[in-house]
Amino acid sequence: MQIHSFSEFDPSPQSNYERGLQRVLDRLVIRMQRDALVRETINLLRDSLQVDRVVLYYFYGKWHGQVTAESVASSEYSIFGSKGPDDCFNQEYANLYLAGRVRAIADIELESLHDCHKDFLRSLQVRANLVVPVLIPKGLWGLLVAHHCQAPHVWSSSDIEQMQTAANTLATAPCIVES
C-alpha cells in the first residue's frame, strides 16, 4: 500500500495557479536559453568569418519566417525583422534545405539566381551569401545565414564547416528542440 500526502491531491485553485505559473516560467527559461545560445553563436560566427552580417532566419509558419537574430559589423547592415519576399522561398527551396543543402555564393552578381532572389539580396546589400539549414527532428527550424555586403567573398571549406557545426549545435540544443 502506498501512502500519499494531501498536497498531491490538493484540488485548490492555488495549486492550479502554481502549476500554471511554473509552466510559464519553464517556457520563459527555455526561450531565454535559446536566445542567448543564438546570440552567442551568430556573434562568434561573424567574428570568425570576418563578414558584415550573420543572421538567423526562423520559420514561424510553413516556409514563412523572418530574421529573429542578427550580428552586424555596423548598424547600417541591420535587417532585423526582415521577412523576405513570400514568393521567393517555396517548396522547391524548402526541400533542398530539408535535404541539408548548403548554399555558398561568392558574388551574387556572377551567380545564376532567380530575379526575385537576386533583387531581394540586393535590397539587403548582400554581395556574398552563405546559407546553412538548422534542421531539428520536426523539420526545417531556420536558416543560419552569413552575408558579406562590401564586396564578393570566397567561402572556404573551413567557413562552411563552421557554419554547419554552428547549425548542428543549434539544432541539437534542448532549448531549441523544445521550443
Automatic annotation (TrEMBL):
SUPFAM superfamilies: GAF domain-like
Domain spans labelled Phytochrome chromophore attachment site: 33-172
SMART domains noted in UniProt: GAF (SM00065)
Protein name, entry field: Putative Sensor with GAF domain protein
Organism this protein belongs to: Tolypothrix tenuis PCC 7101
Native organism taxonomy: Bacteria, Bacillati, Cyanobacteriota, Cyanophyceae, Nostocales
